[in-house]
Design brief:
The protein has 13 helices and 23 strands. The protein has about 475 residues and is an alpha+beta fold. The strands form seven sheets. Strands 8, 9, 13, 14 and 15 form a five-stranded antiparallel sheet that branches. Strands 20-21-19-22-23 form a five-stranded mixed sheet, with helices on both faces. Strands 3-18-6 form a three-stranded antiparallel sheet.
């Protein structure tokens, strides 16, 4: 709201300064909205704020006088969606672990736990990750490479958000699907009703019969007066206005609005778009200063099964409980063991029976993430900590493990491995390490007593 006294409006076509100011601001607002550009308003008082709001003008950020240079800087950055932190450079397309660790630190400091994809018409894939763009100035392709790299290292856990059809020529999402004539490929087709003339048996689109207000059969020239007596309308069909072809099933083509190429829908590239959630390994990477996990000390591993000792597992479980309380994450515990393990010992001996338990342990280890922790619970059972995985995810993993075991060639043809599983999860089944382990053990015993090769959960302590 500038001082308009003495304002020369002779070249603008306006005579009223207030009208000039109002129309100018409204035009800026309209243009900014169309181009998705934020507008920062600096107004003289709260009354001016109410005035522009009443006029239907919306600003993404407003400063009211008096203000300081810091106020201006902070408001500009907020209007542009920038964090108070400095953007990381495009250096090496984020291909250095140092930059990735700095990125993870910024995300954790800002309390960002999930990077959600947001619809973005300017992005070639129709989506972008604005929370990531606060810190990283790289194109969308490099962004996906960065996120997928961190997901492969178990620092991010990805969840499918959408699937997008991409033009195979220009790799953009701007694809229009349209119905075409299967004969000539024209898009100038029209859905029409069909008419069946009973007397002569002719069937054709309604446009062939219409002559003014009457229906005249194009074959026998008889007038059709009464539906049900003279004729019927059996179905709707398509008519090509270019070559007159009549058809019931049109073809479909994909037309790229970006480059103008056409193709069949089956030739489009299908891209998956994911949301990415930081796992516990993100905080570990920041604290250790290393993206890669530390080498496993052989002293931490059980020599018979090749998975962690229970003492190491207890330490990891305590850490996971603390981390989940802090960030509100869920996680699960699996307790599993071979069915008929005592029979294995009696028939094959303790050493060979232990070999089959090792097969189960190694199959599980191959299927879980780096951030998960498998360990030996006692002589015949395995426990697995599934970081940031709800119980339903643990059930799904168990199903995949069964299929994997069916594919493994065992040392003996007269032996089949089956196992039972007990599941507990934080916080539904317990909020301390002791409660969670006990819940999983109880569920495992119930699975064993329910007929073997069974999955069971202990009823939640929060359920009545």
């Amino acid at each position: 709201n500038p001082d308009t006294s003495g304002l020369d409006l002779s070249s603008t076509g306006y005579t009223d300064p207030e009208e000039f100011i109002k129309n100018t601001v409204t035009a800026i607002h309209t243009s900014a909205k169309k181009q998705r550009t934020p507008v920062l308003a600096i107004l003289k008082d709260e009354q001016a704020t109410q005035y522009w709001a009443g006029a239907g003008v919306k600003f993404v950020e407003v400063i009211v006088q008096p203000y300081t240079p810091d106020d201006i800087n902070r408001s500009v950055r907020n209007a542009l969606g920038l964090s108070h932190k400095q953007k990381l450079p495009e250096t090496l397309k984020m291909n250095t672990d140092r930059l990735k660790i700095e990125l993870l630190k910024n995300l954790l400091d800002d309390g960002i736990t999930t990077l959600h994809p947001v619809a973005d018409p300017d992005s070639p894939i129709g989506y972008s990750w604005p929370d990531l763009a606060k810190f990283v100035d790289i194109d969308i392709m490099a962004t996906e490479e960065l996120l997928d790299d961190l997901a492969e290292r178990a620092i991010l856990d990805r969840r499918l958000h959408d699937k997008i059809h991409i033009c195979p020529t220009c790799n953009r999402y701007n694809v229009n699907f349209r119905e075409v004539c299967p004969s000539c490929g024209s898009i100038d087709i029209e859905l029409q009703e069909m008419i069946h003339h009973f007397a002569c048996g002719y069937v054709g689109p309604i446009s062939q019969f219409q002559q003014g207000m009457k229906f005249i059969c194009p074959k026998c020239r008889a007038e059709l007066r009464h539906i049900g007596l003279d004729y019927e309308k059996p179905a709707e069909t398509f008519l090509c206005k270019v070559n007159g072809h009549v058809f019931t099933d049109p073809g479909v083509e994909a037309y790229c609005l970006a480059c103008g190429d056409k193709c069949e829908p089956k030739d489009l590239n299908l891209r998956s778009v994911y949301a990415y959630t930081l796992t516990g390994r993100a905080e570990d990477a920041v604290q250790s200063g290393s993206i890669e996990p530390a080498e496993i000390d052989p002293l931490l591993l059980d020599p018979h099964l090749g998975i962690y000792h229970h003492s190491y597992f207890e330490r990891e479980l305590d850490t996971e409980v603390g981390r989940s309380k802090r960030y509100g994450h869920r996680f699960s515990l699996l307790v599993m063991g071979l069915d008929y393990y005592d029979d294995f010992i009696k028939k094959l001996g303790r050493s060979e029976a232990l070999g089959y338990l090792r097969i189960l342990a190694q199959a599980m280890r191959e299927m879980i993430r780096i951030s998960d922790t498998p360990a030996r619970l006692d002589k015949d059972k395995i426990v697995v900590l599934l970081s940031e995985t709800p119980p339903e995810g643990a059930v799904s993993l168990t199903g995949r493990l069964r299929k994997r075991l069916d594919e493994i060639k065992l040392p003996r043809t007269d032996v089949k491995i089956s196992f039972s599983t007990g599941i507990s999860g934080y916080p539904e089944f317990g909020e301390t390490a002791e409660e969670l382990i006990e819940s999983a053990k109880i569920a495992y015993n119930r699975a064993q007593n329910s007929g073997k090769e069974t999955i069971a959960e202990k009823p939640s302590k929060k359920k009545k």
